[in-house]
């Protein structure tokens, strides 16, 4: 049986992309898998009684060492903010390439806590900062110092002791450019070093909370139970800064989605599913219910989605248990077709993620295809002609070409870079100033404009001649030729329309990171949790690959 | 030290700020990054050019011909560079082209370097007493080092070099003789058993 890849015109709609969930392809899971046999070490832990100071953690294999340097600082409660305008944080981190020298540690002590206004060097790979969940952190310190384990209900509601508010890499603020490290086999997967940083920060939060509790009451204090640690992750507040990334990296976006689509296609093409694979799928599905029922949010938008998801998952489990025969040929194809017919987008994508769990042999090779050499596709094939380009637009952007951009609703928003923090923002074109400085993220509008201009020209006109008088559309000409080769490179929706839900764009990227429990705090930012349930560094040698579905166990 | 990523982003945004379209700005960002990677003072020249651009009008070449004469004002190296990339397959048939009064000729180099990769031919660019050999966007060889680059060139000449060896036949033969010292003479019995043995040519 040959199953076709799913139609980009359906999959690349924002509502569908905003329904994606973590899977075996997610970067934090592929990071753990890659680094499980590396030697983990805590190289330095020089904190004062209150938990302020410096700590270093490392992963080492043969001659390669990656070191996380943590600087924990005292800040006042009124200085603590997750917003990008903050200038102080409870802790700041950098991942250093190799073993840092004393000079490096001292140099970085002056720069890392300053974050965006500090300067890093080519020896540093990633940069981040994090704030305590004061409520959770103080409660854990209080409990441990009195010889008790913390209240699990409270910890379940929060999910972490610290949340990061930004993780930077790839050349930002002087960090090493990607080209310096791209040939290293262990980081042949997107955002692998960012994942390493977050993972080691998580361990730092446990060590710090134990340290503070011990110093508070040396005679009575106990250590945080490793089972509780395992069920804590690292929180993250994410705003619009992440959204332009998926528009600005079309081939990378394609490779992420294409890997997921190929995995699904191959799973649907399995004629006979082994009993152990069937059982693993069912186990993960049932265990995952805990992830849904413990998904806390006050967002009405998300609550509705969770409610519908839970209802549909229960309906699906009932279908599997009572009406479905796994013995029949191509069972996962049958399941997929049933899901498409009977359940919501959120449920379809949730189950698609779980379908991958038993099939490491299908998923693992795809992980290595999720990076992209974007430079290779930058040049525009200017010897092609207008007729070729017109056909590409008609084939690859058919829904977009139907959008009416002559009405206000389709043009309501514009993306810009804020002057004070140099971060992407979204505003109403008809109410705010600055639309003349709009970022090139209105791809649907510009593609439509390109098509309308092409309609007036002869098909045999070369693209190099077209570009002479149409330089304003050069950016979308380039994109269209990329979309010709990469079916999932383009969001098939209007990113400036009245109905845009920007967090759909964030959610897509965060799902590939491996985030859980998306908690929208508005339509423009959300909180998530990463590595909740993940093995601790000293457990990596032999861990359960399906840990995501076994939190609280 | 600034990373190449910062260089590309800053060059792109600055280009948009001085009036280029986003698509053109992307080309500038990529090219300035490349030029800095090769070790040329591209950020310095781009900055100077954009400061001048506020005060002075620069001509924009649309269709590049064999000889591109100026009307007295100087040509924009960026528009020339982008159009050179776009039109390189046509320009290649001319084998050589020249442009008068080109401002900040250093800024043209990365565009030509990329064009060299697109057509798979080396390019030689010369202006004043500077020469640059552009090798398929892998490297740039120059006869100037630590020398101040001109901010205006009266005439820039660009030649497409034929794909040919840059060593003599004799050099090659001499080197190949050494290679033969690594081969072993085959016996008749080994020749009889080699691939294709036993068949007639007309099989």
Please state the overall shape of chain A, judged from the principal axes of the Cα atoms. globular
Biggest sheet record of chain A: 9 strands, mixed
Which outline of chain B best applies? elongated
Q: Give, in spatial order, the strands making up the sheet with the most strands of chain B.
A: 1-2-6-3-4-5
Strand content of chain B: 15-25%
Radius of gyration from the alpha-carbon trace of chain A, in angstroms: 24 Å
Radius of gyration of chain B, whole Å: 24 Å
Number of helical segments with 4 or more residues of chain A? 20
Quick recap:
The complex is a heterodimer of chains A (553) and B (203). With 553 residues, chain A is of the alpha+beta class.
Topology:
The complex is a heterodimer of chains A (553) and B (203).
Chain A: H1 8-11, H2 14-17, H3 27-35, E1 39-47, E2 53-61, E3 64-72, E4 91-97, H4 102-111, E5 124-132, H5 134-145, H6 152-158, E6 160-168, H7 192-216, H8 226-230, E7 233-238, H9 243-248, H10 250-268, H11 275-293, H12 300-322, H13 331-342, H14 345-355, H15 360-367, H16 386-396, E8 413-417, E9 424-428, H17 443-454, H18 463-469, H19 474-485, H20 502-513, E10 516-520, E11 526-530
Parallel strand pairs in A: 6-7
Antiparallel strand pairs in A: 1-2, 2-3, 3-4, 4-5, 5-6, 7-11, 8-9, 10-11
Helix pairs in contact in A: 3-7, 5-7, 10-15, 11-12, 12-14, 13-14, 16-19
Chain B: H1 4-17, H2 22-37, H3 42-53, E1 67-68, H4 77-92, E2 96-103, H5 109-119, E3 123-127, E4 130-135, E5 139-142, E6 152-160, H6 169-180, H7 188-192
Parallel strand pairs in B: 1-2
Antiparallel strand pairs in B: 2-6, 3-4, 3-6, 4-5
Helix pairs in contact in B: 1-2, 2-5, 4-5
């Amino acid at each position: 049986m040959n199953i076709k890849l799913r139609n980009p015109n359906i999959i690349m709609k924002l509502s569908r992309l905003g329904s994606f969930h973590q899977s075996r392809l997610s970067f934090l899971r592929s990071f753990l898998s890659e680094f499980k046999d590396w030697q983990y070490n805590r190289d330095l832990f020089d904190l004062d009684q209150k938990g302020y100071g410096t700590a270093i953690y490392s992963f080492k294999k043969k001659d390669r060492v990656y070191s996380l340097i943590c600087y924990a600082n005292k800040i006042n409660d009124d200085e603590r903010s997750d917003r990008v305008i903050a200038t102080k944080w409870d802790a700041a981190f950098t991942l250093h390439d190799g073993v840092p020298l004393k000079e490096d540690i001292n140099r970085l002590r002056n720069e890392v806590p300053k974050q965006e206004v500090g300067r890093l060097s080519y020896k540093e790979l990633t940069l981040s900062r994090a704030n305590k969940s004061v409520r959770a952190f103080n409660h854990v310190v209080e409990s441990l110092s009195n010889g008790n384990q913390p209240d699990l209900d409270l910890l379940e509601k929060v999910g972490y002791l610290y949340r990061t508010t930004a993780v930077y890499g790839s050349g930002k603020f002087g960090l090493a450019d990607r080209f310096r490290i791209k040939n290293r086999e262990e980081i042949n997967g997107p955002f692998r070093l960012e994942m390493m940083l977050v993972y080691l920060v998580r361990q730092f939060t446990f060590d710090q909370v134990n340290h503070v509790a011990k110093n508070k009451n040396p005679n009575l204090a106990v250590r945080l139970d490793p089972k509780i640690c395992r069920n804590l992750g690292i929180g993250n507040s994410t705003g619009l800064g992440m959204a332009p990334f998926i528009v600005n990296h079309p081939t990378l976006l394609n490779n992420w989605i294409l890997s997921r689509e190929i995995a699904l296609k191959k799973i649907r093409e399995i004629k006979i599913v082994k009993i152990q694979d069937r059982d693993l799928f069912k186990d993960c599905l049932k265990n995952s219910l805990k992830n849904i029922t413990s998904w806390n949010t006050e967002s009405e938008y998300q609550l509705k989605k969770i409610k519908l998801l839970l209802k549909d998952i229960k309906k699906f489990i009932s279908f599997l248990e009572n009406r479905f025969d796994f013995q029949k040929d191509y069972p996962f194809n049958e399941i997929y077709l049933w899901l498409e017919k009977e359940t919501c987008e959120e449920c379809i994508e949730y189950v698609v993620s779980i379908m991958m769990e038993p099939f490491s042999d299908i998923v693992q090779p795809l992980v290595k295809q999720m990076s992209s050499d974007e430079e290779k596709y930058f040049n525009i094939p200017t010897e092609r002609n207008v007729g070729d380009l017109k056909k590409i637009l008609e084939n690859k952007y058919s829904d977009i070409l139907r959008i009416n951009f002559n009405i206000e609703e389709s043009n309501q928003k514009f993306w810009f870079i804020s002057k004070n923090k140099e971060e992407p923002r979204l505003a109403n074109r008809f109410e705010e100033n600055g639309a003349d400085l709009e970022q090139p993220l209105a791809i649907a509008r510009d593609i439509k404009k390109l098509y309308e201009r092409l309609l007036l020209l002869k098909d045999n006109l070369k693209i190099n001649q077209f570009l002479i008088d149409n330089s304003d559309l050069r950016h979308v000409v380039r994109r269209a030729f990329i979309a010709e080769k990469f079916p999932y490179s383009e969001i098939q929706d209007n990113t400036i329309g009245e109905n845009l839900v920007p967090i759909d764009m964030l959610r897509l990227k965060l799902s590939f990171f491996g985030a859980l429990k998306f908690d929208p705090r508005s339509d423009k930012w959300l909180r998530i949790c990463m590595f909740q349930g993940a093995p601790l560094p000293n457990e990596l040698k032999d861990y359960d690959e399906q840990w995501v579905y076994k939190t609280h166990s | 030290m600034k990373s190449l990523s910062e260089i590309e982003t800053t060059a792109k945004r600055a280009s948009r700020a001085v009036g280029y379209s986003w698509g053109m700005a992307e080309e500038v960002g990529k090219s300035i990054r490349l030029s800095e990677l090769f070790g040329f003072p591209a950020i310095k020249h781009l900055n100077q050019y954009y400061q001048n651009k506020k005060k002075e009008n620069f001509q924009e070449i649309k269709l590049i011909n064999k000889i591109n004469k100026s009307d007295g004002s100087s040509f924009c190296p960026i528009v020339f560079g982008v159009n050179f990339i776009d039109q390189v397959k046509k320009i290649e048939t001319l084998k050589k082209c020249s442009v008068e009064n080109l401002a900040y000729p250093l800024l043209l180099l990365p565009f030509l370097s990329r064009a060299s990769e697109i057509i798979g031919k080396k390019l030689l660019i010369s202006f004043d007493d500077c020469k640059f050999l552009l090798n398929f966007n892998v490297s740039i060889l120059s006869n100037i080092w630590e020398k101040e680059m001109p901010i205006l060139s009266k005439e820039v000449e660009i030649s497409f070099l034929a794909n040919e060896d840059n060593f003599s036949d004799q050099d090659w033969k001499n080197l190949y003789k050494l290679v033969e010292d690594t081969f072993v003479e085959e016996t008749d019995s080994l020749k009889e058993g080699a691939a294709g043995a036993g068949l007639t040519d007309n099989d």
